[in-house]
Amino acid sequence: QVQLVESGGGLVQAGGSLRLSCAASGRTISRSPMGWFRQAPGKEREFVAASSWSGGHTYYADSVKARFTISADNAKNTVYLQMNSLKPEDTAVYSCAAGGSALRASGTYYSDKLYDYWGQGTQVTVSS
């Protein structure tokens, strides 16, 4: 059984940084496309970042590009989302997700439709 557990969320002032972690069990992340999504109150879930890990390709939403970085520690089977220069509009519940061959073949990492497993999410609140 695949489990994804996020941690690292919290309250931070605008301009600050947080690092989210997504610890995986039952799935080797180095073989799985991984993504981060977020959902703010009253809004739809939106894509934040993803990596297919193959070829070192990473993908980011325009709103977070140059501020957020997705990375992984294969020894810990954990994916990270480093978030810098946080803005109040980054406030949301952040969730990690794992995909498989269908996602990798489609290349649609920005869409939540082909991710197979999801974590429970961690709250990030950025105060102005």
How would you describe the overall organization of this protein?
- It contains one helix and eleven strands, in the order βββββββββαββ.
- 5% of the residues lie in helices and 48% in strands.
- It has 128 residues and is mainly beta.
- The chain has one helix at residues 101-106; strands spanning 3-7, 10-13, 18-25, 34-39, 46-51, 58-60, 68-73, 78-83, 92-99, 115-118, 122-127.
- β4 and β5 form a beta hairpin.
- The strands form two sheets. Strands 2, 4, 5, 6, 9, 10 and 11 form a seven-stranded mixed sheet that branches. It has a four-stranded antiparallel sheet with strand order 1-3-8-7, with no helix packed on it.
- It starts with a strand and ends with a strand.
